Give the backbone structure.
Amino acid sequence: MALLETVRKLACIQIFGDIPIFVAMDSADVWTHPSLFEMDSNLNPRAVAGVPPDYFAADGQLWGNPLYDWKRHKTTNYAWWRARLRASFELYDIIRVDHFRGFDKYCKIPADANNAREYEWVPGPGIDLFESIKAEFPEARLVAEDLGIITDSVRELVEATGVPGMNVLQFGFEGATEYLPHNGIPNSVLYPGTHDNDTAWAGLNQQSQPVHDFLPPLSAGARYPLCPGI
């Protein structure tokens, strides 16, 4: 492992990691720190995480993760979150923080719900969490996954943290023109796609002729090969 790490640094290879906002109900985190989550005295969740109905899912997405007790986290100066990032930075050079909008407001769903049609938006920790993170990790390289139902307050939080957001190229070619390279939001990272998209190769090859004309490698109407030289 040490040799691999040395080779990686000599080759200037950086590892881009990912950290989900929530943890699983049966995770070691919940069972060792139940007071940091919205659990009752029997360690059952009072409410769970998810996202409301949208164009991807008519019933919304019922993730079922336990929600954080953010007031309790604040009393510890977000020690658990800082420890989580500390462990992640031992593995990665850059970390994408998933579901960033949940730090502004998160979707709270009844624990006994069968879908995410019944929900409420509840304030998250906001900039307070990221000020705590910055105090311990002043050089931390984070990327905010700021996709989905994004409000002005979410945009303001991303800007306040100074963390770059995400642009998704395939979304740009499918109508969300703000994600096109020439419209890109400053201080953002351009992704070919996400787990909600097809692969970059398949996605680009399925685009219309104007899109292929827009991309120099495809200006003659050619299609991307599966591998160079094929």
Summary: Residues 77 and 171 are 37 Å apart (CA to CA).
